[in-house]
Amino acid sequence: MTTIRFALVLALALFVWLLPSSVGRTAFVPFDILWQYPPHTPPAGQGPPHNHLIGDMLYENYMWKVLLRRAVAEGQWPLWNPHSFCGHPIYATGQASTFYPLNAIFAILPLPHAFVVFTGLHLWLAGVLTFVFLRRIGVSGFGAAVGGLSFAFCGFFAMRLIWPMLLGSAIWLPLMLLCLLGLAGSSDPRRSALIIAAGAAVFALPLLAGFFEIAFYAYFAAGLYTLALSWRVLRERRLAGLVWFWAQTLAIVAVAVMLAGPQLLPFLEVKDRNIRAAQADYEKTVARALRAEHVLELLVPDIFGNPARHERFDLRERRLVPIEGRTNHYFFGDKDYSENGHYIGLLPFFLAMLSPGVRGRHRAFLAGRVPVP
To answer: What pTM does this model have?
Structure first.
């Protein structure tokens, strides 16, 4: 399968998947969460909010986009939120994605449609970039298509579709790996300079998107891939080639940090001046970590329930009945479902388990990409 053909197939699949919000009357923003608090009340016959755990999407992210549109309409950069206490630098904490290039979608399109377009575009990029990377390392067209579809439709993204800053920080990993692979195979200074320039821009995007935790995971994976490529470069081009490869990699990192400076420097200044700064000590962090039983979620994502469920099947009455109690949702996990979920899908999970036995110099690295809590 060619890249163009796969890109068209993926675009069609994503359009069908997002169809209710693309052309239907379903919004891609959980406005029903407003019904939790006065003066808002649900319409007659309407139940409780679909999932009250995703309130940040409405109370924070949606309002950031409203402020973005107002600032752009007034010819200003969306840097300041005048409605928070005595004012607040909205760009500093990162997740407003102020300097992220694709955030312009929210300034151009009506907001309910902009969220769908932004999400669909990023999932499409995730799949296409994965396909290109896999083809570059020698995977067949069919195998690359499976990899691209698995990444674009993985459970990790499906649980977080409505958080644009997370998608913006996560989907560039395949292109980051592709840039590193290009450096490892290049001995031409001109070609290397072009890769460094493009790679620096790509490496800056996860930080500019603003979800720094996800950006850290992407950089960590890129670092491991750099070590894997270093062994290959050392065998093929000896020590001088390895030193040259590391120098180019450091150049990408240095330029990327400079490009992301407008976002990174203000964040470093304010990170210790928020309510969570005192909650980040080692003991509290470990107490909030995943436990051993969460490994089961790699196979069964809803093993502890799903907060979006408002009904259960009654075996005695043989019908669905409303769930009472627990704020009318079915979830018994000890952590937030939308933040805890790490299900990637059964197909990629089992294929990853088989990958160590597959031929190819990249199998050891790719086999280790299965997330373990």
So the answer is: 0.89
